[in-house]
Design the sequence.
């Protein structure tokens, strides 16, 4: 997949902020979790953009904000040029047909009391896309074979399938309404490697055939490098760096990205080279993010300015990074 | 003296079966495995391949309906399978310790971590309260927990995932075990924390003369810290070799498939190699080689007869007819 | 369910409706089937009572006071010489109605409110649960009396009174269940498809509450039967000379040492009735549980 220049921008995330109020025992404790703090990015049609970062960096929250499963505190999410926040229920319902989600846990994401037919048909019935039951069933069979399941299994229940098959069921449900965008929230991290490869290949094939755009949320950098066109690196609710995958992996600009790439265990014993540069310390709390650059408490390059001033995103050709010292 | 003196752990022809209502599942089938002194040995495979059951068999912690049906497990030349439950309790946590994937569920939420570490010590030695405390502090700083004195008084939920795993390791190391079994110790952790923990385990192995049995599904983790590797599939060892030999000179089609399905860190390829089909049920194993239904190079022979572990030289053994040529003539 | 690999046969035709799943369960589960027959038998027997009973339930007969069990009176006579078995059969009318109708009403009410409170959350949840707290904080009998008295007594007012006092427990259980199910990814998936909140509650959350509901239902029936007796005793329930099982236990417990059959008979009747519901409930729960279908 090479990126063409004049592809249409499908999704635009503009300075989105999401804060959750922490609830104490009896009343609001007044503490606020800064889950996402001022994130902006765009996603073109047919493109794969990965959101990477460690747990608590806000990547999953970001995915749900994009689908408006949760409401942003500030900022705008525009899908095909229209702001989701300003939409009423009927408009939103129509937009929902065009953006879908695949979840991490193939056990929690399927209703255990529904048959596979009912699970995959639910989006079709909700949006009344087919007039008769025969047509609906035909479409379900088509979707099942598209993701590599046998149509005669449609009366079984989710627990009768393996993890990989259940993930395929989730993908079939997401494809049912011919979406333009699929948010993939860690879709392969619960699977064994060989099954993971099958699912990744399936996602790639589907993208080529159907022109889907993926917002691919993952902590696995190997998977991200394999599947995505561009990458956003997040740390504590903020963007560190965004740019084309190969450039980020071959020459990261932000110090956090460097540490992250360094830390990944590589499946090649010859790449063990003495001691790795390890990131010291722990993730700061999103309740009390450090002032200035959120990364400064762990950053070896940190200087005075980092403690006082949060760096803005600076452009470097097709890439952007948020660090005072990036040249 | 025992000829296996240099081996910390020696497992010979171990079989652990689960006797379920639907039949007998051979979760571990005739496994022979050794862990030399001062080494980190990896046991890799996908879920259900028997790697965790092997570890539990070493500790004799397999619970019903599972049972060790045959074989031998020797720790420093001492047979463990004949030991009484009381003797086993003295060995667990003392000579062999274990750390698990999910540190939160392995720690008791109502006691401070200090108390739990000290308890591990006091069960196995007649250490006094102050001595136990001193050693706990010492071990906490050895595993890189900042402010060890202060952290002893923390409850598990007050610690981050990385710190909890360090506490688990401190607890496992506090009695200076001969062998530490680590069952997916970094799977639940973020990459930067994972790197810290792997680094720590390597340091400890060198510092305390403890061998480590590393159970994982992650080839990256194996490549990062292991010296020797066993690849398991459906209860059997399929391939075993020195770490460099295994990666440079991979022989078994299953291992090749496993390595091929990893999204490569190097160049981008659009399609990943994938092993077709699924792991077979242990209750319904294919005839012949267990991997044959999924193997692209399977021959009729593979489907009728199970290959043995053939010696491919340089400490490399492969359970595959493709690599049997060298030794087959002698055997027939 | 895994027998057929016939792809040409329409899958939908083989799709099992709730009714056919239950029918299948009754054929396989002897205990549940027997329980259903027992419940049906007791119900029919009490409806058809005037057609076959040899004695009037309410006519006293002084010379037969406290008559022990005999061929004429199978389980003896009560303190006024009325046949105990006949009274038991007639008493079943009120008890079964009291056992089933208020329990069902209160559970429908509690389930609805609990689902809304748990799924919608926020202020709605706050007010529904404060309402539940008020109901639970009142002595339930007193509250039932007040409601029943205000509505002017009689059977309908008892139904309403007993429903009002017992919806809160159901609401609490279902609310907790709904809150945890709401966080599940399959609910999020439904939302992302654009399924409306009300539909999600009915299609995804309610079916996953079925096991809890069945347990609550079988637990609530005996409570309702016994509560009715207390109300009757206080003059707002079944009015003498008509009777109910609960009222019989209540009245005859004083004779437990001297004429034990008087209190034991209605006790056993309640036990059989409740047990039958219990076993039937277990059967229904299993029949609707997809995990039982391997």
Sequence:
């Amino acid at each position: 997949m090479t990126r063409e220049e004049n592809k249409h921008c499908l999704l635009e995330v503009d300075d989105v902020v999401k804060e959750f109020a922490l609830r104490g025992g009896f009343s609001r404790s007044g503490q606020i979790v800064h889950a996402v703090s001022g994130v902006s990015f765009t996603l073109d049609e047919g493109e794969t953009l990965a959101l990477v970062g460690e747990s608590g960096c806000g990547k999953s929250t970001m995915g749900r904000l994009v689908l408006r499963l949760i409401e942003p505190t500030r900022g705008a999410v525009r899908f095909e040029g229209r702001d989701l926040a300003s939409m009423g229920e009927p408009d939103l319902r129509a937009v929902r047909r065009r953006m879908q989600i695949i979840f991490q846990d193939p056990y929690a994401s399927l209703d255990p009391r529904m048959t596979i037919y009912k699970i995959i048909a639910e989006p079709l019935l909700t949006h009344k896309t087919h007039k008769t039951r025969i047509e609906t069933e035909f479409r379900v069979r088509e979707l099942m074979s598209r993701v590599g399941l046998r149509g005669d299994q449609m009366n079984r229940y989710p627990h009768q399938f393996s993890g990989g098959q259940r993930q395929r069921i989730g993908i079939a449900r997401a494809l049912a309404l011919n979406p333009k965008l699929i948010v993939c929230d860690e879709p392969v991290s619960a699977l064994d490697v060989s099954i993971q490869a099958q699912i990744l290949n399936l996602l790639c094939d589907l993208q080529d055939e159907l022109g889907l755009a993926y917002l691919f949320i993952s902590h696995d950098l190997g998977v991200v490098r394999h599947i995505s066109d561009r990458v956003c690196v997040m740390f504590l609710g903020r963007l560190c760096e965004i740019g084309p995958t190969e450039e980020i992996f071959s020459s990261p600009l932000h110090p956090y990205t460097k540490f992250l790439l360094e830390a990944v265990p590589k499946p090649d014993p010859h790449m063990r080279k003495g001691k790795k540069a390890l990131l010291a310390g722990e993730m700061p709390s999103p309740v009390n993010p450090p002032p200035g650059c959120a990364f400064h408490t762990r950053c070896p390059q940190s200087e005075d300015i980092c403690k006082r001033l949060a760096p803005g995103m600076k452009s470097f050709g097709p890439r952007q990074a948020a660090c005072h010292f990036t040249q | 003296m025992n000829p296996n003196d240099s081996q910390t752990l020696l497992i010979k022809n171990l079989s652990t079966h689960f006797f379920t209502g639907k039949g007998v599942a051979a979760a571990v089938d005739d496994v022979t495995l050794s862990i030399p002194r001062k080494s980190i040995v990896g046991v890799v495979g996908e879920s259900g391949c028997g790697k965790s059951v092997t570890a539990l068999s070493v500790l004799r912690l397999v619970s019903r309906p599972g049972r060790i049906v045959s074989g031998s497990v020797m720790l420093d030349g001492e047979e463990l399978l004949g030991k009484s439950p009381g003797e086993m309790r003295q060995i667990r946590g003392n000579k062999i310790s274990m750390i698990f994937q999910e540190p939160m569920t392995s720690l008791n939420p109502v006691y401070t971590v200090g108390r739990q570490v000290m308890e591990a010590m006091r069960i196995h030695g007649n250490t006094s309260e102050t001595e136990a405390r001193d050693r706990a502090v010492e071990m906490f700083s050895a595993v890189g927990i900042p402010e060890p004195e202060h952290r002893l008084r923390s409850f598990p939920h007050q610690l981050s995932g990385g710190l909890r795993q360090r506490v688990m390791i401190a607890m496992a190391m506090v009695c200076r075990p001969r062998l530490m079994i680590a069952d997916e110790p970094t799977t639940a952790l973020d990459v930067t924390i994972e790197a810290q923990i792997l680094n720590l385990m390597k340091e400890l192995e060198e510092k305390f003369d403890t061998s480590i049995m590393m159970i994982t599904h992650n080839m990256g983790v194996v490549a990062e810290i292991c010296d020797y590797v066993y690849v398991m599939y459906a209860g059997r060892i399929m391939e075993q070799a020195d770490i460099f030999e295994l990666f440079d000179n991979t022989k078994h089609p299953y291992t090749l498939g496993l390595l091929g399905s990893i999204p490569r860190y190097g160049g981008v390829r659009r399609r990943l190699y994938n092993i077709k089909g699924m792991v077979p049920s242990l209750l319904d194993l294919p005839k012949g080689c267990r991997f044959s239904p999924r193997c692209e190079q399977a021959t009729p022979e593979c489907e009728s007869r199970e290959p043995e572990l053939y010696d491919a030289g340089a400490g490399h053994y492969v359970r595959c007819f493709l690599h049997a040529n060298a030794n087959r003539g002698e055997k027939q | 369910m895994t027998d057929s690999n016939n792809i040409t046969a329409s899958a939908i035709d083989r799709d099992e409706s709730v009714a056919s799943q239950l029918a299948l369960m009754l054929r396989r589960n002897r205990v549940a089937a027997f329980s259903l027959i027992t419940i049906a038998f007791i119900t029919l027997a009490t409806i058809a009572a005037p057609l076959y009973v040899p004695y009037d339930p309410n006519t006293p007969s002084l010379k037969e006071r406290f008559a022990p069990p005999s061929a004429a009176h199978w389980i003896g006579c009560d303190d006024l010489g009325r046949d105990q078995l006949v009274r038991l059969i007639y008493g079943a009318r009120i008890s079964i109605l009291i056992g089933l109708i208020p329990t069902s009403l209160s559970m429908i009410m509690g389930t609805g409110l609990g689902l809304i409170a748990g799924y919608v959350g926020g202020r709605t949840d706050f007010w529904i649960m404060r309402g539940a707290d008020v109901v639970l904080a009142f002595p339930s009998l007193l509250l039932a009396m007040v409601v029943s008295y205000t509505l002017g007594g009689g059977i309908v007012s008892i139904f309403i009174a007993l429903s009002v006092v017992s919806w809160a427990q159901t609401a609490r259980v279902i609310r907790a269940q709904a809150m945890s199910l709401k966080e599940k990814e399959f609910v999020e998936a439904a939302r992302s498809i654009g399924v409306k909140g009300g539909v999600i509650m009915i299609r995804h959350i309610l079916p996953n509450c079925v096991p809890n509901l069945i347990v609550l239902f079988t637990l609530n029936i005996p409570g309702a039967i016994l509560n009715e007796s207390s109300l009757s005793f206080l003059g707002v329930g079944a009015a003498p000379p008509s009777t109910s099982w609960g009222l019989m236990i209540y009245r005859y417990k004083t004779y437990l040492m001297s004429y034990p059959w008087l209190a034991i008979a209605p006790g056993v009747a309640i036990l059989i009735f409740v047990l039958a519901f219990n076993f039937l409930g277990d059967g229904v729960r299993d029949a609707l549980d997809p995990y039982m279908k391997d």
In short: Chain B has two domains: 7-95+177-264+272-327, 104-176. Chain B touches chain A through 45 residues (CB under 8 Å).
